[in-house]
Amino acid sequence: MGNDAKKMVMNTPMLDELESGPWPSFITDLKKYSEKRPVITQLLNQLNDSYETKWNYWQGKIINCSGYGGGIIARVSDKSDVYPDLANFHTVRVIEPPGWVYSTDALRNIADIAERNGAGIIQLHGMSGDILLLGFDDEGSLQCCEDLMNDGWDIGGSGAAMRTLQCCVGQARCEMACYDTMKTTKHITDTFIEYLHRPEFVYKCKFKLSGCGNDCANAIVRSDLPIIGTWRGPMEIKQSEVAAFIDKKGLDYVIDNVIARCPTNCISLKTATKEIEVDDANCVHCMHCLNVMPKALSPGKDKGVTILVGGHRTLKIGDTMSSVLVPFMKLETDEDLVKLTDFIDEVWEFWNDNGMDHERIGEFIHRIGMGNFLKGCGIEPDPRMIREPRTTSYIKFEELAPSRMEGEREQNPPVWNREPESSETM
Amino acid sequence: MSETKLAPRDQGAPDYTKFLHPVMVDNYGEWDYHERIKPGVLVHVAKSGDKLFTVRAGSPRTMSADTVRIICEIADQHCEGFLRFTTRCNVEFMCREESEVEPLIATIGEKLGWPLGGTGPSVSNIAHTQGWLHCNLPGSDAAGSTKALMDDLIADFTQEDLPNRVHISSSCCQINCASHGDISIIVQHHHAPRIDHNNMQICELPKVVAICPAAAIRPKLVNGKESVEIVEEKCMYCGACHGQCPSMEIRDSETDTLSIWVGGKMSNARSAPTFMKLAVWGIPNTPPRWPEVSEAVKKILSAYKETGKPWERVGEWIDRIGWAKFFELTGFPFTRYHIDDGPEALSTLNRSAMVRL
Ligand code: HEM
Ligand code: SF4
Ligand code: SF4
Ligand code: SF4
Ligand code: SF4
Question: pTM of the prediction?
Answer without folding.
Answer: 0.94
